[in-house]
Amino acid sequence: MVEGAQSAAERPRARGSPSSERFRHPPGEYRTDSRVRPGGRRQGAGEGRTGGASDTLLASAPMRVVDLDRDMRDVIPTGTSRDSEFLFDRMTDCTLGAASAGGARRILDVASGFGQDARALAGEGAFVVAAEPSARMSALARMQEVESDTARTEHVRAWGDALPFADGSFDAVFCKGALDHFDTPLAAIGEMARVTRSDGRVVLAIANFDSLSCRVARGVDAVRQDWLGRPPPRGRRHYDVPHDHFTRYELGLMREQASAHLTVEAVRGLSLAWGLPAWSRAVSRLPQFAARATLETFDRVARVLPALADVVVLWGRPRRAATTSA
């Protein structure tokens, strides 16, 4: 979200935005203080009391509404269909390729989840730090490292908008498929820029909710309901923003927020038509080589028409003004 000026395309922020008071506590330790008024100012011993029942009530601190036990059980499986597998593979290849380009050896993965991307880069010899606020997901990531005997990464419990690292600590920072889960995405991009070297790179991979697929599906559903009088389809449609997302991203908003802290160097669209049941069925019926060729052709179209792509990956250098936290 743009601080102080909410875009019409965005969802409202969760009640109780975090105040600067939260950032004074160690990562993972977020306390409330009954003397803190909304806005962050502490209340004195005699302030705010008006007598009667209100004597027993004190304002509580602003609190962030999040799920620190999130474990991705509700996330779409990456291999349920050919088009899903292709999209997620392309998203990973493009994001990690951009992050490791130019010989980047110190890399930060923001909202690292199960840590699979961090492990992949560590396996190529990079020093990788995985920053993730969910203790459960970090524990699962560590467990997978032990079980698979893969390259180890450094795990840090941290919010994307309050990264506990010095300015210019990393050659590259990336955030894959998580920015729309942040309640303060603009501040998070600012933090990613701050901890990246001035000649380094910040890479963002974001789902596009104004893709060709979303537009077609919305149009089809509108015809079904408005023209044919059929009831709306049951369940969440893929063009609906999930309940755990704070922002409905489209290309214009992605550019706007990224440009606030980055000099954007490249924008890549990935995949077309993902999420359309008829498309998924058609691809699944093709011979393997034909399905691959078709998906790659559509992917090339998405590259030059990122506004219609299913996912957009963009990257750039930190702006000089982003040397301090947003």
Characterise this structure:
- By secondary structure, the chain is of the alpha/beta class.
- It has a single domain (82-323), classed as 3-Layer(aba) Sandwich (Rossmann fold), CATH 3.40.50.
- The chain is built from 8 helices and 7 strands.
- Strands 3-2-1-4-5-7-6 form a 7-stranded mixed β-sheet, sandwiched between helices.
- Mean pLDDT is 78; it is low at 1-67, 71-78 and 322-326.
Please sum up the structure shown.
The chain has 326 residues and is an alpha/beta fold. Helices cover 31% and strands 15% of the residues.
Layout: helices, strands, pairs:
Elements lengths: L81 H19 L5 E5 L5 H8 L3 E5 L3 H14 L5 E3 L13 E7 L8 H10 L1 E12 L4 H16 L23 H9 L2 E9 L6 H9 L2 H17 L6 E8 L8
Parallel strand pairs: 1-2, 1-4, 2-3, 4-5
Antiparallel strand pairs: 5-7, 6-7
Keywords summarizing the entry:
globular, 326 residues, 7 strands, 7-stranded mixed sheet, disordered C terminus, Rossmann fold, disordered N terminus, 8 helices, alpha/beta
Q: Determine and state the CATH class.
A: Alpha Beta
The largest pleated sheet is described as: 7 strands, mixed
Query: What is the CATH topology descriptor?
Result: Rossmann fold
CATH superfamily: Vaccinia Virus protein VP39
**Count of DSSP strands:** 7
Helices and strands: which structural class?
A: alpha/beta
Q: Count every helix, treating DSSP H or I runs of 4 or more residues as helices.
A: 8
Please give the radius of gyration in angstroms. 22 Å
Termini separation (Å)? 12 Å
Order of helices and strands, N to C? Answer: HEHEHEEHEHHEHHE
**How does CATH name the architecture?**
3-Layer(aba) Sandwich
- Quaternary assembly: single chain
Which of globular, elongated, flat, extended, rod-shaped describes the shape?
Answer: globular
* Unreliable runs: 1-67, 71-78, 322-326
Beta-strand content: 15-25%
In spatial order, strands of the major sheet run: 3-2-1-4-5-7-6
Total discrete domains: 1
Mean pLDDT: 78
Helix coverage percent of residues? 25-40%
